[in-house]
Design a protein that fits this description.
Length: 71
């Protein structure tokens, strides 16, 4: 289990919001490829504090506050 994964939050995103949420997170983190997105999503890359806050801000915009963890 990875403490840096945000799959728990991602699992709460609706299908209709998924592309928008993913695009926002990728833009905030400077990610341009799906492989980098998956590495971040699964917690294989430890986020800097500023990146973790950016991820939390995007999820909060969609009413999702419990985001860290795998499921």
């Amino acid at each position: 289990m990875s403490e840096f994964s945000f799959q728990k939050g991602w699992g709460q995103v609706t299908v209709g919001q998924a592309k928008e949420v993913k695009d926002e997170i990728m833009k905030k983190l400077g990610i341009t490829s799906n492989s980098n997105w998956l590495q971040r999503l699964k917690g294989k890359v430890e986020p800097r504090v500023s990146e973790a806050k950016a991820i939390e801000t995007v999820f909060k915009k969609y009413g999702i506050t419990n985001i860290w963890g795998e499921k």
